[in-house]
Amino acid sequence: MRLLRLHTLAALAALAPTCVLGASFTLTDAKLSITSLDGGSTRLSESFTATSTPKLERQNLAADEILRLSFSVKDANGEVAVPDQVAVKVDDDKRKSIVNAVAIKRGKAVYSLKPDKLSHLGRSITVSILVGSADPSLDPLNLHLLDLLLPGPEPTTSTQLTQRARLEQEQGFKPWPARFHTFGKPAADSMPPKSLSAIWAGAVLIVPWTVLLGLLSILLPSLSFKAPSLSIIALLLSLCYLESLAAVYWWSLTLFEMLPWLALGGVVATLTGKEALGQLRRWRLQSKSAQATT
């Protein structure tokens, strides 16, 4: 039934002139455009009416482009009309044609024409709008819009290139490079090698003792030695323990593994240091009292 109505509409419209037979139907807010398939760019955009169509030369429709039509159908009084059938007719230079019905929603019609849907037609085509009604008092409309040249199977000239190919030549357009996810490097990969860490740990351990021994070589002639007490020996041993713990921590231990041993050595060094300092104070006081009596 729908196919019969389309053929009837095409037959009625064929009897009408190129523009309007009567004043029954008018087109408002009518626009034709040639855009890319994704709608990102528009190469052609023209407005038209039922009595005036854009005067355009034959346009090339690339394989990645689409012809879009949008218009509203109204009657002679400017009210929204609801014709029995609205269609777009495509004729080629070999007298082949197709008629596609266009749905009207709230008085507005929208239609898109893709080149791949017309592969069975010749390359040179003509696009027209057909509007008809079963009411004999309403005259049909046959509006010729424009002539198009469909893309050939093997483009040989720059005018037959696709829109993407033309942009690459004219504007240097290139697609975005592919993105690949990269994982961050582990912290261990950015750490210095263990040999370098051992050198720095040895420097931290040796330099203070080197400075101390250098100072002792200057102070030794003026010092009077006594047998060290157990508290002083324990203090020296605890200090050596802390130095060794620092080296081991730098080499292989983690912070939480080192903290208990540090707490133990710190307590021992504090207690023995307090006792050793007290012992040295008593020796110093005894030395001063002996000098005062003499």
How would you explain this protein's 3D organization?
By secondary structure, the protein is an alpha+beta fold. The protein folds into two domains: 2-152, Distorted Sandwich (Coagulation Factor XIII, Chain A, domain 1); 192-218 and 225-293. 39% of the residues lie in helices and 24% in strands. It contains six helices and ten strands; from the N terminus they run H-E-E-E-E-E-E-E-E-E-E-H-H-H-H-H. It has helices spanning 2-15, 163-171, 187-190, 194-219, 230-251, 255-293, and strands at residues 25-36, 42-48, 59-60, 65-75, 85-92, 97-101, 104-105, 108-113, 124-132, 141-149. Strands 2-1-4-8-7 form a five-stranded antiparallel sheet, with no helix packed on it. Strands 3-10-9-5-6 form a five-stranded mixed sheet. Helix 4 runs antiparallel to helix 5 and helix 5 (230-251) runs antiparallel to helix 6. 17% of the residues are buried. Residues 1-6 and 11-23 have low confidence and may be disordered.
Placed side by side, the strands forming the largest sheet appear as 2-1-4-8-7
Topology, number of strands:
10
From the 3D structure, determine the CATH topology of the largest domain. Answer: Coagulation Factor XIII, Chain A, domain 1
Counting DSSP H or I runs of 4 or more residues, the number of helices is: 6
Instruction: Enumerate the spans where pLDDT stays under 50 for 5 or more consecutive residues.
Output: 1-6, 11-23
Major sheet, described briefly? 5 strands, antiparallel
Count of the separate structural domains: 2
Fraction of helical residues: 25-40%
Q: How large is the share of residues in beta strands?
A: 15-25%
Tell me the structural class: alpha+beta
Termini separation comes to 140 Å
CATH 2nd-level architecture of the largest domain: Distorted Sandwich
Radius of gyration of CA atoms, rounded to a whole number: 49 Å
GO biological process, one term: protein N-linked glycosylation
GO cellular component, one term: oligosaccharyltransferase complex
Membrane topology: Multi-pass membrane protein
Keywords: Endoplasmic reticulum, Membrane, Signal, Transmembrane, Transmembrane helix
